[in-house]
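Supplementary notes (optional reading)

For those who missed the lab, this is the record we used. Protein: Probable licABCH operon regulator. Length: 693 residues.
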Amino acid sequence: MNKRSREILSQLITKTEYNQTISIQELADTFKVSSRTIRYDIDQINDYLKENHLQPLNLGKRGVINTEQDITKARESLSEEGFYSFKLSREERVSFAVVLMIGSDDYITLSEIADQLFVSRSTIIQDLEHIKNFCRERHLYVLSHSNKGLLLEGREIDKRNLLLDMIQSGNSIFKVEPIFQHLTQCLSKNLKINLEDISIIEKIINEAEHIYGRFLTDRSFVQLRNYFQLSLYRLRKSHYVEYGGKKNSKWEMAKGMINQIQQFIVKEIPDTEIYYVADVLNRMKYIKKTTSNKEIVKMQVITRNFIQNISKDIRINLQGDYIFYENLINHLESTFSTLGDRFAINSVVDEVLQRYPGVKKATEKNVHVLEEYVGRKLSKEEIAYIVVHICAAIERNKNETVRYSVVLVCNGGIGTSQLLLARLEKFFHLDVIDIIPAHDIENMNMEDVDAVISTISLEGKGIEYIQVDPLLTDEDCIRVGEKLSKITPKTTVKETVSEEKTDSFKSLEKIKEILEDKNDEDSLIKIRTVIDTFFQKKEETMLSDLLPAQAIQIGVECSDWKEAIKASAQYLIKKGAINEHYVDAMIQNVMENGPYIVVAPGFALPHEALNAGASKVGMSLIRLKTPVPFGKEEMDPIEWVCCLSAINKETHLKAMFQLVNLFYNQSFRVKIKECKTGEEIYKIIEQFEYETR
């Protein structure tokens, strides 16, 4: 096989392991060749599979490449064959040997290094002085023992710095896939690093990019992933950097990533690692986004308007679905970036488009709201994935009032199962009875089980199940939602009573169950997950937190919309949350972009970009004595104006979402119409907030 054929086979193996598919056209787009060339490559791959007594590839509908499960057996032989076909230079051999020593706690013999590099022992002996000099220049020392081999001594921080330097140097042992695969396999002989760990690392990095608004270049993304992947060998052996640095601008992002790694991969990591990762992030390169993160509040408002229009056209109210709102914002932020990524419409997405023609039509009709914001036409692929997000929300909402008892089947370790569990519980109302491996499914009592959700195929097990990706894609949400909607839950007294319990009691009950299971080796991880989930809910900034009684005024006199915006800002100015420049910028924003800030009948939400003069997050609501038009005919005149001060993309989001929804609630509008003071309005907000929690 040629190099491209090997890379295609490697991709197909990974797709099969995660129960995903890829088409000929997708591969042609990836490798920038014709589909005919990919077909020739598939012929080569089939010859290779036949030689290794494995099932061949075959083509399905729309050029989707179908694989058999035994293709995964080709990974090891492919890696060795691919690596063997490369003749490494002395510099590459030195780097390879150094990484092996960094990943080892004990002596490693010259013969072991030679065997793993497929060279003679005498070649390694000739390289030895170069290896020592290479390490010595970086304050690390190679101890050589005639009977034991080589041992790398020095501070952990110097070992990590050397690792990072090699990754960022462009050394081919990290860039060429067969070489890097072989390197990680050699390291894994001492300490297993699963495929699931790599996928979770990629997901953690990607989520951190969105949360903290810093998007890595493609090259830096791969470099950071490789660093985390290799540093796991050190973390799992409890080797931590000796670091006393100061907090930099990337510290919060580093903390978020380390917290996620602790939750899903490595149990306990000290804060010194956060400081070091913050410095690692400083060494990476980032892109400037087309959708400036400074304008994220504007995008949040426009996304809300888009959802409102979609809800009206498909006659399904999605305006109260905060999960959908948050997910769509993150998706659009990624779509509007300058990463150059273009989505491919795979067979699953195509099936969704065919099953939901009404949603597709409504999206195409209203996508102009988003196009006006981003300043360009969205491609049919980008629109297709917006449709998928909407359909996933529809399926989740179908099952909003019903709880299902489910069993999770995960073929991976604790990281995969906990990650999948966290995502499922966020999107659906589930009581997870147990998490089990596939081989234990026969021993599971299914009497009280409504559904089985599995990350792997359970064909031949004689049960109905829903198969999902461990990372739970939007396509998975649609499938899970559709399957659950056809199931009648096996309601029990226990389930009915549990609905009445408080969040605190539920959390304590979960911890009690974990502690009572004396055979559970992962109890500490599970308890930490319960506690983190509980406090994450409690730390949400709610509407009543950002809009106190003293920030609400009634009977304010204004002659036009400009005066109304200025009046709504006065409380925040007095509190030092914003300055006069912010007020001027809000008015200029409406003059340039139109009255998109009118987000509900009779209600406007003026705001400005991040760092336009805001220093604190906050809200200030006024009721005009005489309503004034803002220029949005279907919602004018405006009686209520709430000035929003935002300092980042997330702190205000839930509160803003709640407030807009309240102004769509007729009961709420009737009640506040009768209020005489800001205190009375605040109490009504608290009441509605409590009822919807």
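If you only remember one thing from this example: The first helix runs from residue 3 to 17.
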